């Protein structure tokens, strides 16, 4: 576990609960001697680049957490540097809850899932909104190809810490793109089977 992540996540109330259940000494060592997690390494960079969705939590002025999903082609969430992520915020339902929240509190938590491989990465950071009028080139650059005109703003996230989670309790799920090779093989097998059955009925060669 990363040192920065532990420092942020393990508040006094969390530490008290860890003490109650007997895990505090282990996590106390992590907070003191944990790995450096202020910037992404090669594994994290590759993982982020392969994702086609992310869940982002922000904090409202009333103190309530707000969770929003963002999706796009793999790589829509861009690793701009080992310490910064960015993505284009596209035209949506015009509620702008996350954007409004960031105006008052820049803290965010990202949750990235790889369901087939049962892996997940949590990233804590500080987010900043960059509107098209401020840096149109950045907004256009972060937009997925072909839909640059739908990008209203960019969200830049400076990384405060991250943590990988164990695969326990992650149910494997597969996207249509991930299933496409299997579907193609199944269709080919079904076609071959149909040919064999037809040949058996006619007594000819398949």
From TrEMBL:
<dbReference type="Pfam" id="PF01243">
    <property type="entry name" value="PNPOx_N"/>
</dbReference>
<protein>
    <submittedName>
        <fullName>Pyridoxamine 5-phosphate oxidase</fullName>
    </submittedName>
</protein>
<dbReference type="InterPro" id="IPR012349">
    <property type="entry name" value="Split_barrel_FMN-bd"/>
</dbReference>
<feature type="compositionally biased region" description="Basic and acidic residues">
    <location>
        <begin position="25"/>
        <end position="38"/>
    </location>
</feature>
<dbReference type="InterPro" id="IPR011576">
    <property type="entry name" value="Pyridox_Oxase_N"/>
</dbReference>
<feature type="region of interest" description="Disordered">
    <location>
        <begin position="20"/>
        <end position="42"/>
    </location>
</feature>
<feature type="domain" description="Pyridoxamine 5'-phosphate oxidase N-terminal">
    <location>
        <begin position="46"/>
        <end position="139"/>
    </location>
</feature>
